[in-house]
Design brief:
alpha+beta; Nucleoside Triphosphate Pyrophosphohydrolase; 10 strands; ADP-ribose pyrophosphatase; hydrolase
Length: 220
């Protein structure tokens, strides 16, 4: 390598180092609880249901003044979903007819508390049994997320269940009283996420998480 090439390479390395230093100076750790850019003035409940309430919230922003937003507020705890894995590596997915979207979906067993003192783990056990027809020896929570932070306080927690045993299912609702359950290998479920067959958010997140886990472990 001649002197000119060495000089150019050295200059490029120094510039890269300088850019990295500048980025380090401007980088700010994300703080989700820092001061809000708006002020809440009042809040009025306008609707109450079994699963959620709706509030009309009056707010003020420095740049536009007063404005209002509707906020959906969960009132029965987190939504709970179960990513169950059979001994041969398949996921029970439930066929559900969803009225708001006028279509069928493939989803993980999931639901809400039916009593105020029902724990998330108890909900997970109940929904796995009632919707998928399984009991499990082990439940491990691996993710909790906000469903739609733009207008809702709803969170979903997902458990990974193993050591499955088949049990009798019960009726789960008027849309699909006893739904069909499909046992889908993880790789196939992941492909169904990619091609748009599985569109339910909690199922997409959980299946991708399991697929990454299996890649890291060298299983697939």
């Amino acid at each position: 390598m001649d002197k000119d090439s060495i000089k150019k390479k050295t200059k490029k390395i120094k510039q890269t180092a300088s850019d990295l230093i500048d980025r380090a100076k401007t980088y700010r750790p994300f703080d989700r609880w820092r001061t809000a850019p708006i002020k809440e003035e009042s809040r009025k409940q306008v609707l109450s249901t079994h699963y959620f309430d709706v509030d009309l919230v009056s707010l003020e922003a420095e740049n536009i003044g007063h404005f209002a937003r509707y906020v959906l507020r969960e009132n029965d705890g987190d939504t709970v979903a179960v990513l169950a894995i059979t001994d041969d590596g398949r996921i029970p997915l439930v066929e559900q007819y969803r009225i708001p979207n006028h279509s069928w979906t493939l989803e993980l067993p999931a639901g809400h508390a039916v009593k105020k003192n029902e724990r998330a783990l108890d909900v997970a056990r109940r929904k796995l049994r009632d919707e998928a027809g399984y009991e499990a020896e082990s439940f491990d929570q691996f993710v909790r997320f906000v469903n739609t932070p733009s207008f809702s306080t709803q969170h979903t927690v997902v458990y990974r269940a193993t050591g499955l045993k088949e049990v009798e299912r019960t009726m789960i609702g008027p849309e699909s009283p006893v739904s069909n359950v499909r046992l889908v290998p993880v790789q196939e479920a992941y492909e169904m996420v990619l091609n748009g067959t599985i569109v339910d958010a909690k199922s997409v997140i959980a299946i991708q998480h399991e697929h990454i886990k299996m890649l890291e472990e060298g299983v697939i």
